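Sanity check

After download, print the first record. It should look like this:
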Amino acid sequence: MRLNKFTIGLICIVTGAIGVYALIANNIYPVAFVKGEMISASNFKAHYSAAYRYYDTVLKKYPEQAKNFKSAAEIKPEIRRGTLDVMIENIIITHALKEKVKEGLASMVASRIADNRLETDEIKNAIRALYGINVENFKQMVLEPQAEREILQQKLNEGEKKDLTTWLTEEKKKTPVVVLIPGLAWNGSSIIVK
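Expected structure tokens:
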């Protein structure tokens, strides 16, 4: 009987360790929580990589103007900060829209980003060159959040008569946010670099 308990305990520990390793190896662990919603490391890394690539590509494309800017490597912490801040804003906006638009939000967003030009080779190649991602990821990471911002701005204009920037500043102050990324912190209204 004692051997059976020991064996079962050992199996549980090994299984748990393998599970934790798999989560960490696949970046399926939280880097932040916003209103109880998790931002995973893999999602953050994808957004950060696209933002970093965009900034670096633009600097390389326009070297004359780039002389006035720091390199992407020099401002990595700022790119990380900005990326997480935008991801937090996107979650706040999505939550607000779900409250304001009870039905049909997905179709509203889809209609705003419906564009057959996204499927042309020229656009696909441009997105890959600028951001390092495919069209589907571009829709999810850039176009859908932008469409949601536009829809929310429209709803705010109809109801509260506020602009999105003012509304978002107020909402960020009320939103519970927990940041787990070393070097970044939430100051009560935005992400800061520590």
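If your output differs, re-run the checksum step. Summary of this record's structure: The radius of gyration is 21 Å.
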